[in-house]
């Protein structure tokens, strides 16, 4: 028996939930979410156990408009590989993640182990959960403690995704599920269906309780609604005690309410209805003491002493006169003494973006039949996720698709100021329709085509590379929005393009170390936020940002290296941001390096780098 079973009554809620989750994952677990993980494990995940993922530069696809602009990233490759690299370069550095994963409808091009998963696959739900679980666990490690994640989904996998996210992000960090109206109720897609999907859904989780939802904000500085004055026509109104309050009662002929021009000395009127009946002290007072007098004291005014935050010392209430055909009373208040310029309201969990979804096809200047998300919808999510107040935030979308998230964040920067950065990750998969187009163009049977794919025929690989989603949709869209198209003004930003690559751990020892070092450089530059240009010397290479401001990486050419020359050169560098020193032997003396002014030595906890005798990061802030 597990010792924890003997101590169940002493566990707190979180410990008990974790214990239940572990039981779910055992063969005997029957409670909660469980699925078949072993029948067909994901090959891409297994591949990362045999080789190490890194990044490879694709400089011909970089879009660098101005060194003063922020560098955003587009990473082409399977998102599990991309996330694996990002766990080193961006661990706990992401402020907001938005993803629009495959909905697993059987018709949405969801690919698992190089095969489209259709509606007849008996294990399609298990495959989808295997696929999502691995990626969401990596994604959680990328979020800052005050970060959040938003996930679009439809009803096919909504309920299991909620359970999966409760497990990964913890149920206490679940915020809400939004229903998002995406089409008109009469805009029927398929007339033979019994039900018409009008809404999709959006799951909202935080990393921890350090995240704060940015509520709706409304200007609270205007005095336009403060236009009323109460004129008391008697000095001897009837006095009454209501609870702990002294109340002066005015009959309809003992007062006048005068409406005039807006003034900071005037009052505003609020109708006591709906949630206001219990939502504040004025509503509760009215319901407790005045509501029952609707018939007997119609038209009365009540001056309730010691109430309100407007400094008047009282608050007026009225019951409508008979014949007004009104069922609710009113209260009058002055300007709050310490009111803020902005008032916050909670978001409803129903969002109507029907018009934006209906017009989304034109956005970005590219066609994407798998479904774009509207830019306005995404900018709304950025606001709700608190990015208006985070001018240097980093946003990640690892199901980037058409690149809507990138365009939305660039527009968000333009509208709100700041240098927020995005990281878009997408594979370069082709759609079923693209496969059909290739077969038709080459007059191939399905059997012939499947043979070409299996043999990795160059003709097919070239076609797939050119017509994959990243090459033909995501990257062209980023070109459009950064350079302008069809009257669309170019946005400020630079795009650096990378592909995922692998380093195999076989081959001759010397060649292995050279290969490892070369292939690590782009990844380290991404970590440091530096674009790579190369400067070579006989003994070692230095990779810089091209402006002599932020040296990123030093690579020892370890054979025949003049160590004294290296140290001398190191001391001459001006304003370096970070230097990585790779060494196979004991030539690197950390004590000498620490003597170089203003540098700090940091450990490098990455699988490839651990193979070296010594890898040192020196930083100068």
TrEMBL record:
One protein family per Pfam: N6_N4_Mtase
Domain annotation DNA methylase N-4/N-6: ranges: 94-425
Family membership: Belongs to the N(4)/N(6)-methyltransferase family.
InterPro entries named among the record's database cross-references: DNA_methylase_N4/N6, DNA_methylase_N6_adenine_CS, N4/N6-MTase_EcoPI_Mod-like, SAM-dependent_MTases_sf
Native species: Claveliimonas monacensis
Record key words, sorted: Methyltransferase, Restriction system, S-adenosyl-L-methionine, Transferase
Domain of life: Bacteria
Name the record gives this protein: Site-specific DNA-methyltransferase
Signal peptide (residue range): none
């Amino acid at each position: 028996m597990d010792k924890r079973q003997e101590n169940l009554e002493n566990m707190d809620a979180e410990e008990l939930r974790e214990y239940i989750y572990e039981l779910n994952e055992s063969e005997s677990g029957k409670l909660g979410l469980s699925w078949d993980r072993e029948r067909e494990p994901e090959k891409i995940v297994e591949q990362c156990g045999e080789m190490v993922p890194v990044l490879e530069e694709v400089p011909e696809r970089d879009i660098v408009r101005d060194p003063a602009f922020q560098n955003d990233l587009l990473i082409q490759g399977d998102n599990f590989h991309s996330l694996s690299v990002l766990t080193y370069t961006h661990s706990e550095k992401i402020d907001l993640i938005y993803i629009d994963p495959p909905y697993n409808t059987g018709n949405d091009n969801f690919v698992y182990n190089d095969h489209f998963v259709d509606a007849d696959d008996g294990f399609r739900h298990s495959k989808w959960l295997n696929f999502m679980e691995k990626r969401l666990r990596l994604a959680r490690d990328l979020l800052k403690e005050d970060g959040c994640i938003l996930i679009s989904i439809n009803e096919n996998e909504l309920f299991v995704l909620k359970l999966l996210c409760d497990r990964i992000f913890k149920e206490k960090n679940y915020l809400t599920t939004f229903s998002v109206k995406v089409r008109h109720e009469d805009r029927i897609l398929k007339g033979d269906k019994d039900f018409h999907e009008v809404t999709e859904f959006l799951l909202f989780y935080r990393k921890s309780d350090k995240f704060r939802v940015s509520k709706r904000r409304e200007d609270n500085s205007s005095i336009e609604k403060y236009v009323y004055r109460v004129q008391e026509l008697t000095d001897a109104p009837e006095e009454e005690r209501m609870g702990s309050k002294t109340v002066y009662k005015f009959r309809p002929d003992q007062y006048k309410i005068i409406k005039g021009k807006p003034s900071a000395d005037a009052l505003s009127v609020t109708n006591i209805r709906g949630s206001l009946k219990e939502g504040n002290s004025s509503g509760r007072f009215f319901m407790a003491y005045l509501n029952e007098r609707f018939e007997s004291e119609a038209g009365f005014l009540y001056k309730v002493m010691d109430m309100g935050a407007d400094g008047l010392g009282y608050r007026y209430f009225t019951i409508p006169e008979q014949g007004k055909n009104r069922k609710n009373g009113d209260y009058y208040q002055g300007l709050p003494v310490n009111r803020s310029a902005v008032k916050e309201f909670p978001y409803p969990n129903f969002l109507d973006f029907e018009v934006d979804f209906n017009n989304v096809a034109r956005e970005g200047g590219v066609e994407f039949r798998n479904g774009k998300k509207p830019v306005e919808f995404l900018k709304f999510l950025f606001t709700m996720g608190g990015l208006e107040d985070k001018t240097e935030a980093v946003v990640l979308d690892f199901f980037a698709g058409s690149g809507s998230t990138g365009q939305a964040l660039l527009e968000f920067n333009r509208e709100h100021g700041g240098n927020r950065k995005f990281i878009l990750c997408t594979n370069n998969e082709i759609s079923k329709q693209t496969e059909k187009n290739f077969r038709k163009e080459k007059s191939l049977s399905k059997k012939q085509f499947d043979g070409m794919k299996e043999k990795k025929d160059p003709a097919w690989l070239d076609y797939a590379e050119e017509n994959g989603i990243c090459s033909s949709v995501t990257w062209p869209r980023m070109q459009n929005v950064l350079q302008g198209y069809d009257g669309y003004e170019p946005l400020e930003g630079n795009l650096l393009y990378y592909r995922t690559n692998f380093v195999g751990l076989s081959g001759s020892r010397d060649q292995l170390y050279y290969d490892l070092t070369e292939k690590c450089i782009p990844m380290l530059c991404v970590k440091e936020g530096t674009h790579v240009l190369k400067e070579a010397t006989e003994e070692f290479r230095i990779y810089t940002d091209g402006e002599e401001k932020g040296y990123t990486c030093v690579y020892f050419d370890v054979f025949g290296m003049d160590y004294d020359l290296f140290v001398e050169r190191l001391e001459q560098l001006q304003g370096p941001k970070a230097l990585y020193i790779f060494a196979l032997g004991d030539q690197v003396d950390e004590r000498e390096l620490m003597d170089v002014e203003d540098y700090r030595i940091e450990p490098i906890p990455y699988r490839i780098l651990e193979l070296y005798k010594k890898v040192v990061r020196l930083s100068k802030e």
